[in-house]
Amino acid sequence: MSKNILSYSPGNDNRITTQANLLKIAAVTIAIPRYAGAFALSAGFVAEGYLHTSLGISEVIAGVAMAVLEGFAIAFILNKWRLLKASSIAWYALLTVTSLLALSLPLVAIPYLYFMQNGFEAVRDVFPNIWLQNAWNFTVAFVPMLVVIGVGLADVNELEREQKQIDFELEASKKRAMLEMELSKLQLTVEQAKTANELEMRKLRAQYKVDISNVEARQEQKMSKGFICEHCGEAFEKQRQLNGHLAHCKVRANGHSKATELEQREGVG
Description:
Layout: H1 11-30, H2 32-42, H3 49-81, H4 89-118, H5 123-126, H6 130-224, E1 227-228, E2 235-236, H7 239-246, H8 250-253, H9 258-268
Antiparallel strand pairs: 1-2
Helix pairs in contact: 1-3, 1-6, 2-3, 3-4, 3-6, 4-6
């Protein structure tokens, strides 16, 4: 099941968010030369001479950094995109942003290559139509913001996915705890039944021993008596007791006695 809830650490979310923040900050930082020139121009200050050259060099450096940043941004977004549920809104959103980022490179580079190949002196020579020139300028300026949007969406969806994973793990942990509790109760019930059964068996064994002892005691008592009724087999200590018993012996009255049965068996034989 994925991550174990016991091994999960909020540091994973912090690491992902830190990566996303670095990419977003880098994307905006790359646009510093354009912002500097735009704000200066809005104030009526036209960059000339050394300042104009410095802004041009800064744009070259920003272009190099932008190419590297765009590669990292696409890799970051795709890494989060593949974890999303296919055909979901977030899945389509990240796919669209990634496609636009990938498309921005040729859209930005092709006019520049055309410019270099034909030896033009100005951008307006490449774009005879002012609307095409404005569209190209917008694409170049918007790419850093596209990186910010894509990375932000990927970061949000990753955090949501992590939160769902945590919720799932917590719910699974609760269910597992409930099952373990029910199992413990069942085991306790079985142990209690087993203990009760053992106690009952001990009682039965003790009662059996008592019964055996009583039978043995009665047998010993009979053996110690010397006067035995020949009809029912009951034993007496004295002759007087035997004589009194014979007067009331039910076996004798019915005509059945051990002696008679023995004589009958011998006669048959």
